[in-house]
Amino acid sequence: TYQVKETAEDWDGFKNLMANSNIADKDLVLRVLSMYSDPDQREKEIKNMAKVYLEIADQILPKLRRSIMTVNVDNIGYSDEEITNIFNTKPDSLKPEELLYAATLTNDNKQKLNVYNKFMEIYPNDWRGPNNAGAMNVLLGNIDKAKELFDKAKQKDENNIIIENNFGVVDLLQGNMEKAEEHFVAASGAGDEVNYNMGILKVKQGDYNSAITYFGNSCSFDAALAKLLNQDYDGSIKTIDCSSNKDEAMMFYLKAVNGARKADTEIMYNSLRLALEKDASLNKLAKSDMEFSKYFNDDTFKSIVK
Predict the structure, then answer these.
(1) What is the Cα–Cα distance from 163 to 136, expressed in whole angstroms?
(2) 94 conformational bin, left if phi > 0, alpha if psi -120 to 50, beta if neither
(3) Per-residue pLDDT tens for 87-125?
(4) Full-prediction pTM beyond 0.85?
(5) Separation CA 239–CA 227 (nearest Å)
(6) At a CB cut-off of 8 Å and minimum separation 6, what does 245 contact?
(7) Largest alpha-carbon pair distance within the chain?
(8) How many angstroms separate the CA atoms of 120 and 109, rounded?
């Protein structure tokens, strides 16, 4: 569907063009514009200046005649179910973006990797295949394989800063801090992920102030940890509370550590209790965690940590 509509005369544009023109009597025209606000009256007065109007018609009006076309298009493609079915039966009939989208339809990282591997087969010259497959291998703990895939991606797009960021992640995981930082600096502009990764790097380097700056407004475990290590316990708790993962066991555990550090036993015990209810394996950690050492002999602590 489309709509056609007229727009009002562009008197502001007309005034601007007149003021910047070489028309001898332009001051008279500009005076008319200031004297009359009614469009019809303005037009009448200007047309009465026969000689000037001819110049206006020749030099000014053509510049004001323009059309603006806006088209709204609904691009109707495959449904999620159709894309999944096509991937399972005839994946080579899917376009690159459709294949990439297919990977988002599962939460199973192994299945995502399967999609990206198929993408590499069908579109071998597209950097996104090996790059995304590399990212999945990172999540699956296959760091050497991930680096190999990122190398392949870089061969297809040498100056891609997204790939550069991923090389930084590999070096960070392998403990190569200097190389990781070089990659992250080179990847500047690749998005919030780069700043976040720099934040993790700075935590590992003990530069907690810089880490907090890089994390920005992120409501994540890492951002909360950086604030705790920087002795901003209230800030750390606030970051935990705004996280979409605030109900996870490790979030409650970190909140308990904040409570212990600020000697707020209500926060500490309530959070520790919830953490252990969600993940009983944290019992062993809490028993020997020196963050809670002053409470080891406390009856309430012993009733929670068994």
Answers:
(1) 13
(2) beta
(3) 999 999 999 999 999 999 999 999 999 999 999 999 999
(4) no
(5) 9
(6) 220, 221, 251
(7) 102
(8) 16
